[in-house]
Specification:
This protein has 168 residues and is of the alpha+beta class. The protein has one domain. Helix content is 49%, strand content 24%. The protein has five helices and six strands, in the order αββαβαβββαα. Strands 1, 2, 3, 4, 5 and 6 form a six-stranded mixed β-sheet that branches. A hairpin with a 4-residue loop joins β5 (108-119) and β6 (124-126). α1 (2-19) runs antiparallel to α4. Mean pLDDT is 78; it is low at 122-133.
Length: 168
Amino acid sequence: MNAFLKKIQQACEELEKENGKFSLLAFVELAANRHEWDVVVCADWLPKRQRAAIDIMADKLEKFLEEDDFLTLSRVIILNKEDSFYGELKKLVKENTPFMRNVIIDGLGVKQIHILQFQSDEIIQSTHPAIYNEISKLDNLKVLQDIKNLVDSKIHAKETANVHQLSH
């Protein structure tokens, strides 16, 4: 998953170089669409017509994604700043980190959301480096659990060795 999200980020960075910053750039995994990601964007430079804006995004993504990646990409969602999803996300960003799990946004159950960039009149937050560190850490939850188990076992082994040393 990490490589997939990085490819999308590279495509979006190229779009930013060509057109200007995104007001919002986020990866969203809805609770109903497990293991499928939506790319959610908002930018003043995107055309007002949804179809034209989606075409711009899709054309760029096609240059960076491989055929198998499209099985993981659910859809590209173009928002404007007046959309209720954008407004609710703005409130959440003020109170949370750029990575959130199990939240409700505009009535949608969101399993996880990675906000790479969010800019508004009140909030200017660009989180590319931080979010990719989080994506790397959270890329495979089993790995995190294995690490926790390993640390716990090392702590237990050290405590056992200390008790054994004290008894001799």
